[in-house]
Amino acid sequence: MNTAESTGSTSSSPADSVPLLQPCAGPDGRETLAHALPPIAAAAAAATAASSAVTASRPGMSRVAPQPGDARELGDTSSLLHQGVRRSQPVHIRAVRTPLDRRANEEEELQAASWPNIPNPFPELTSPAGSPVLTGTSLPPRQPGAKPQVAWSPGSWNPNGGLGTSPLLDVKVVKLFSEDGTSRSLEIPAGTSARDVCQSLILKNNCVDDNSWALIEHLPHLSLERTLEDHELVAQVQSTWGIDCDNKLFFRKNYAKYEFFKNPLQFFPEHMVSMPYESNGSIPHSQLIQNFMNSSSCPEIQGYLHVKEPGRKSWKKLYFFLRRSGLYFSTKGTSREPRHLQCYAELSDSGVYTVLSGRKMYGAPTDFGFCIKSNRASSAKELKLFCAEEEASRTCWMTAMRLFKHSVQLFQNYRLLQQRRNHLGQLNVTPMRNISENTLVAMDFSGRKGRIIENPAEAQTVAVEEGQAWRRRGCQRLGVVGSPSPCQPSAMSIAIHKTQPWFHGRIPREEAHRIISQQGLVDGLFLLRDSQSNPRTFVLSLCHHQKIKHFQILLFEEDSKMFFSLDDGNTKFSDLIQLVEFYQLNRGILPCKLKHHCSHVVL
């Protein structure tokens, strides 16, 4: 028996039939008893011999001298291996399992297959693409003498560069300002929307969430500002700013943000909405506006605009058409033929801003300016400036541009707010009843039992007496203790309105215009202020049909009592709080009821 035959016979025998001692050829050719190779060592020896045979059979390859310890694990059988065998690569050898082991393994596999499929809560830690640990096969070839490089996944800590840029771990710091100059810094994830930031500030400052709070992007060096849409990412907007710029984000109310969904006819005048060719004027204006709000195909907005010529200080008046594809102007009067239309601006990669100081900053012909600013623009030379003849025209153009730019997303934002309001209303255990004036009756509680007053004259007399008694109790409560005339209004009763959020103190008319315009030109938006012409009177500034009107509140004295009135004393009130509460329920001489007050919050 030669060595190759002995090795082959040893490796080919089954593991369970190998005896502890077996005959083998000794140095003198006689058979002796030697320890049998263990199954794993025998298999390794066979694999090594086969590998050496293949290596020796290849042309151009020489044998390698055996190294000491190459077959150390074989014990006394090292002399049986060929001299000059080259070590082969490791070979996976399956372990021999008994039937009991196979049965246990099958039971484990069946049990694992019956487990529910639980999603991985940390995919970024176990994903091969996002793992910071690299295997040997994925490492790139390294040049001689180069230092080893480690690839760091996004969001993991890099000792050379700090924190990565994963959206899950990337935290931004934004600074929010209020109208009074106070500010507050917030740490937000990179994917936080404007609505989420507003909701956080509402909770932190205990504000009333009436779906009118918004973030305002203010660019002082360009005298521009705009309201961020609810779905816009705050960090993404902030990333478009320059390093040395003084841009700010304001937190304030904007009642006109979604008002055009409630009252579209007021925002889209009939003379500015052009009919499509196929309608031939058969579609009513109200139906056209509904199609404009609900369908994907929108009518055109048309009208004259003053436009600033590029590179010049002069302005030119042109006739423009606004379509979903962009803003066009006619080269021939008001012609809308395609050969006469020239594209002036696109809205896909731009924002629509309100110009704050158009006359002073850009020499605008009117105060109703707006502009289209590209997201990459940083200087005034890159702006496309426009001026409208009136506020209604500017509002129509800017609202239509918002709709064309954001399309269905704008309506979805509005629907989400409505659904949230309805959900909060359902959570209210005791909802307020909608009580109309027709369901109210006059009652007399002077006796032991209450009775309904059916006589109108008697009801009027009781109402007057009750009002006088209420004023008397109010004067006694606010008057100075021990005063001989408790009905005489004290300093507290005269100045109690200063604690109300709708009172803005001694501000000029221009400042009142600015505050109301910033918080949205909607019907019923108001504020009260001191009169600058008459120190003993007050002024009610009210918005109606996108115009701001001012009404003087006079102070009357009757029977040694002081009253406030808006209608020359026909309707008198003991303080301004009663006056505001009355006109919130009744229009009176005003063009509309008082609905929203201009408020400011301290951050």
UniProtKB/TrEMBL annotation:
PH domain span: 298-406
Keywords: Cytoplasm, Phosphoprotein, SH2 domain
Gene Ontology CC terms: cytoplasm
Residue span of region Disordered: 1-32, 48-75, 97-159
Domain Ras-associating as annotated: residue spans: 170-256
SMART domains in alphabetical order: PH, RA, SH2
Domain of life assignment: Eukaryota
Domain SH2: 502-598
Compositional bias (Low complexity): 1-13, 48-57
UniProt keyword annotation of Aminoacyl-tRNA synthetase present: no
GO BP annotations, alphabetical order: insulin receptor signaling pathway; negative regulation of insulin receptor signaling pathway
InterPro entries membership: BPS-dom (IPR015042), GRB/APBB1IP (IPR039664), Grb10_SH2 (IPR035037), PH-like_dom_sf (IPR011993), PH_APBB1IP (IPR039665), PH_domain (IPR001849), RA_dom (IPR000159), SH2 (IPR000980)
Compartments in which it is found: Cytoplasm
Keyword flag Acyltransferase: no
Family: Belongs to the GRB7/10/14 family.
Protein known as: Growth factor receptor-bound protein 10-like isoform X4
Gene it is expressed from: LOC116938549
